Amino acid sequence: MEKQVLHIDCPDEKGLVYRITEVLYRHGLNIVSNQEFVDTTTDHFVMRTAFEGEETPNGVLEDLRTSLPNEADIRHAEIGDRSIVIMATKEPHCLGDLLLRYSNGEIPADVQAVISNHDNLRSLSEAFDVPFHAISHEKIDRKTHEAKVEEVLEQYQPDYIVLAKYMRIFSSDFVDRYKDKIINIHHSFLPAFIGANPYQQAFERGVKIIGATAHFVTDDLDEGPIIAQDVMPVNHSYTAEEMASAGRDVEKTVLAKAVKLLLEERIFIHNGRTIVFE
Amino acid sequence: MEKQVLHIDCPDEKGLVYRITEVLYRHGLNIVSNQEFVDTTTDHFVMRTAFEGEETPNGVLEDLRTSLPNEADIRHAEIGDRSIVIMATKEPHCLGDLLLRYSNGEIPADVQAVISNHDNLRSLSEAFDVPFHAISHEKIDRKTHEAKVEEVLEQYQPDYIVLAKYMRIFSSDFVDRYKDKIINIHHSFLPAFIGANPYQQAFERGVKIIGATAHFVTDDLDEGPIIAQDVMPVNHSYTAEEMASAGRDVEKTVLAKAVKLLLEERIFIHNGRTIVFE
Amino acid sequence: MEKQVLHIDCPDEKGLVYRITEVLYRHGLNIVSNQEFVDTTTDHFVMRTAFEGEETPNGVLEDLRTSLPNEADIRHAEIGDRSIVIMATKEPHCLGDLLLRYSNGEIPADVQAVISNHDNLRSLSEAFDVPFHAISHEKIDRKTHEAKVEEVLEQYQPDYIVLAKYMRIFSSDFVDRYKDKIINIHHSFLPAFIGANPYQQAFERGVKIIGATAHFVTDDLDEGPIIAQDVMPVNHSYTAEEMASAGRDVEKTVLAKAVKLLLEERIFIHNGRTIVFE
Amino acid sequence: MEKQVLHIDCPDEKGLVYRITEVLYRHGLNIVSNQEFVDTTTDHFVMRTAFEGEETPNGVLEDLRTSLPNEADIRHAEIGDRSIVIMATKEPHCLGDLLLRYSNGEIPADVQAVISNHDNLRSLSEAFDVPFHAISHEKIDRKTHEAKVEEVLEQYQPDYIVLAKYMRIFSSDFVDRYKDKIINIHHSFLPAFIGANPYQQAFERGVKIIGATAHFVTDDLDEGPIIAQDVMPVNHSYTAEEMASAGRDVEKTVLAKAVKLLLEERIFIHNGRTIVFE
């Protein structure tokens, strides 16, 4: 697995790859993989570089900043060193799959805690030795509830928050505070069948495919930048509940994929879309 | 390939399969395959039975009518004996794929003609020895145009009409006249990205999957009963045009599948949904 | 979910469906779904019928035996009433996924126990309250080991045995004793890359697809009747270990599907192949 | 579409990307996309760089050769400027699909001619205005037949030869002469079901998936480096012929994909495997 990763994000201009790789070469770093993309509709450049070495030599980031345009956003991450908190409501399929993968060593992060607005997922979390926090939303307003959630998040300071079927909507304030740090899994297809009972809608419409979308959370409900999508075939013999069950299988697969991409720092967000370097 | 096929469609009640197979047995028919489905939300029964024999013995349909409830809709079809007219506008990918399959013996029907509102697909159709009719919609109103189309259709009397990227909308009158006989292929996902430039919308939204849906044509634009759907993965490096190109590949695959299902009489329509016996 | 299911398996002849449904009708049973298939290469008939009712009226099986050819094999199953024992070795991905589904109510059976030849999966099993039996194969011969396994199986009397990455080969005697009752999940494609280190072989060959096959266990190693197969795309950037990791994801999906088909009694075995009524 | 492309292939060492992009920057070239891969099992580096500009300035290749290790293999290609000859035997599905795509502008190459050892595909080729050469293999030995094929190939000097269901085996001499220039489509899975009647074998084995593999042609029959693979689900109700028909659909899709990758110069061959930059 790659360990040291650089994320560079800046307006496109000639020679960017040359200037970046020159700095890395000068510091004696061996590049393991390089991925770049130029969004030609906005003339924007993004690059993900993984290089060998236990740590990044001093001065690399500084030299990159000197060498690149002022607007450049340069980030460094150590893969395997990430941390997440998972939030869920009552459904165990996505949470359980993530915890299983975590216990199998397939999640390159520390799963610090599970937060839920109900208590029924406690035994599942604790079976995998992950601390569980039930923060009920009942009888309190959204602001108070979010404050309690934030209190727990403050305690862990996770790099990312993974919504594994967390069924409550965050306020703009909350979303802003964790900008580009919260990902969600959404049944069915975005932007189709928005609203209540999507599987009932899908059933009534007689769809032949059921899907799921993992996306970043923004103020636009279920409309943040898409990270991953997949589908599963269904047919007329599926009841609405069986479609939902098929949907749960896609959801857990797509969310697991998105979490992996996120924790390996393979995702850039630009102009409302993601660039995903698989 | 199956040849003699019965379609039975009626309110569910006990003993339907028994009564149907009793009639077939009494007439000495050998059933090759039987497929039934009960829509339990509406208590409705559909059954497709294929049996051996060059022709259906006299009296079978009559005896079935006697044996089954009055409301039963009983249809008989001879597979391989069907006929279609294909309608297209300017894009050759779906039409070409159907013509190729036709010439390879993979379409169990006579492709009687191609009708287009433009002339550019003439050489493609004629290369496969299929008569081509250009009926321009320019400078005439929709009613007049449809009358001209109907005139050609009358000449061929096709069992089905396949819209292979025909980009004009039919009037309610036209659709009514060919109820349950017209199928269409629609880019992207129904009901998502309805409107102009769906691939541009998909590109801007950064979707990771492109799809196509084949459906019956009803008055609700692009909302008729779904026959088949499929998808293809795309990513950030696809331009809107490349997404459209990927989309064309899915479109042709899905339409070909729907045409095959249609001509093998594997589709029932009930309550706005299809039952497809694959 | 369907509850009462009949499996009928016999040489094909005219009127079988009629005779079967006549008996059911006579006993006042309401058929929920019927699926039949005739293997025309061997003139063999199989049928799966699900009907409503908490229990099967007395005499139905007897009357079917009277009505059908002597060679007919007629079985009755109550879905939801099944029981399984899972066997595994050291890898947790398939076992964990099955246990999760079991705890979510998605496995229509009682998971009675987990048997392993190692001890490391004990905490996973016990986290889901499933008894765990470690039966080491070390320092004893295969016959003795199998006798110990059988002793535990005798105690549970499961309907089926699911090998969820159980890495030991059974003797012919063992396989015979549980004929058509053991299913297995196999990496990669059958019959491709048989032998040691299949993912290393797949990597060296530069395959672009990784698959898994669920099958019944017979004397022919990894060659029993296939139940389900699926694949996942891979590419040049995958190491052998990453291919194996992708493979694990397919394995768990395919095994879960096969287990569901098995427990819903949707599988027939005839002439070395399966007929799967999905 | 990209136009100017560089392929660089050499033993890995520090600073390769830096040295390459330095040369391009010095010559004022704007990189559109860069893709690199290091095969860490052999310490080998490959890079594909697409840059803007109608032509490559003089001296770029020379400067790259100076800047890079002696062993480096540096190739330049102009996309859209490629040419191919298609070879087929009797089956029209792959050839027809390629010709349709060619006529739709979806093949970035000049399809110069079709060569077959039979005459039945003549009208299909000529319908798309592509010259057709029937070179019968009957009553002559392989050497003589290949000499005749080479004579026609010499006349066209294609960049690549696409075997679209060409059912004859080439001699080592022929393969050597067109090393890394011939691609083939193979039914079923490599290396599974090698031998005669693969679909019959697949049918008898009761497979649930049918696949196709596009690969470079080497001396090892059907064992050259894999370019692309895909599958299609099948089930017990498919006859061997229906499996073959499903297989034809996968074959044409996979071959079309491989041809596009080839003509856009997205494929490297190293150590018997391909690196495909999609």
TrEMBL record, chains A, B, C, D:
SUPFAM superfamilies registered for this protein in UniProt: ACT-like (SSF55021), Formyltransferase (SSF53328)
Keywords from the named record: Hydrolase, One-carbon metabolism, Purine biosynthesis
UniProt pathway: Purine metabolism; IMP biosynthesis via de novo pathway; formate from 10-formyl-5,6,7,8-tetrahydrofolate: step 1/1
UniProt function note: Catalyzes the hydrolysis of 10-formyltetrahydrofolate (formyl-FH4) to formate and tetrahydrofolate (FH4).
Gene transcribed to yield this protein: purU
InterPro entries cross-referenced by the UniProt entry: ACT-like_dom_sf (IPR045865), ACT_dom (IPR002912), Formyl-FH4-Hydrolase_C (IPR041729), Formyl_transf_N (IPR002376), Formyl_transf_N_sf (IPR036477), PurU (IPR004810), PurU_ACT (IPR044074)
Name of protein: Formyltetrahydrofolate deformylase
EC number(s) reported in the record: 3.5.1.10
Presence of the UniProt keyword Cell wall biogenesis/degradation in the record: no
The organism of origin for this protein: Fodinibius salicampi
Catalytic residues, chain numbering: 222
Assigned protein family: Belongs to the PurU family.
Catalytic activity: (6R)-10-formyltetrahydrofolate + H2O = (6S)-5,6,7,8-tetrahydrofolate + formate + H(+)
